[in-house]
Amino acid sequence: MKLTLISKYRTHIMGFAILWIMWFHSPFYGKTEVFHFIHNIGFYGVDMFLLVSGLGLYFSMRKSKSIGEFYKKRLVRILPAYLIVSICWYAFFKTDLSFSDKLLAILGVNYFRGTIHGRPEYFDWFLPTLMVLYLLTPLYDKLFQKAGVKWKFTFLSMMISPLLCIIFYHTGQQVLYGSTVRIAIFLVGYWIGWFLYEKREEGKGSWMVHLSLLFCGIALVYYIQTYIKNPTVFWGLNCYPALLAAPAICAFLGALFYLFDRYLKIVGKILLFPFYVCGRYSLEIYLFHQRILEFVAGDKGTSVMKLINDIGINTYSKEYYFLLALLSILLAAALHELIALVIRLITGKKTKKPEPVSEQKTETKETAETIGSVPEPVTE
To answer: Which of 163, 190, 187 is nearest to 177 (CA)?
Structure first.
């Protein structure tokens, strides 16, 4: 369980995270209490994405020749897919909204207005949040580089997260918790990026630290989910155990994927492939999956649900939600590759094919810079 394996298998980890989030968005819990609990903390997939994103942005800052180049890479990755899906969604499926509401929703302004009442659309909170984090990253990086002891600076910077939650609690803007509680895990990811870039060595007993943090994080979130009944306090605290659990989960997954890749050979590559695909198309999967779920649950999705029933699939079964997830992945892959093709035609550049996992090396200052080009994370 090494932090280096988080960067080596970062795309696969994002694939696991988006699958976990998709399960969380689906109302199919499973039959046991354990599965029910794992389903209920599926939003931790978001924290895993932000951890990996912070890690990747550190390397991207080192690789980019200018701040303008850094911003350009981020915008090219996110905006085309987001705008295409969002504009089509509001143009063809949200016809009951006014033009101003549609525009404010697409621009992310609705989310930052900070109150649920009167705002018809705000579930795309993650994209506006990510854009703000991107905007502030160069400034934070300058302060981070000047800091003497990096972990102390990171810890002090993380205090902005609970401080903002307290402010929003007292100003009635609790809907912004989704962003503010995740600032801390993003900064942890940024510190991990520095740790790996500088080739710092973990101690031999680091696996015991990871397991201890994982146990404490899971125990804490179980306590919060079981005993905290006030919804405002619940959502203000619910994500903070991810500061302990998410890095450990990512390290554990990295170790597991490494074992699959190294010792299971062909079988291991087959097992890893779905996680790689989902990680590669994670942004687009999120954009499609949540909207597909909303569409089939509404009046306009009645005909689709009837068609699915006619072919013998119960619309309340796990097969039904698996079908919707598969549809989301296929649409996501198609959109991602279409956008990549258009960008290649416009710029005249060829896209490098990703290296197979077995050929990837543990990142150093030179090799790990490629991490800045990984797919961007998604959200709840």
So the answer is: 163
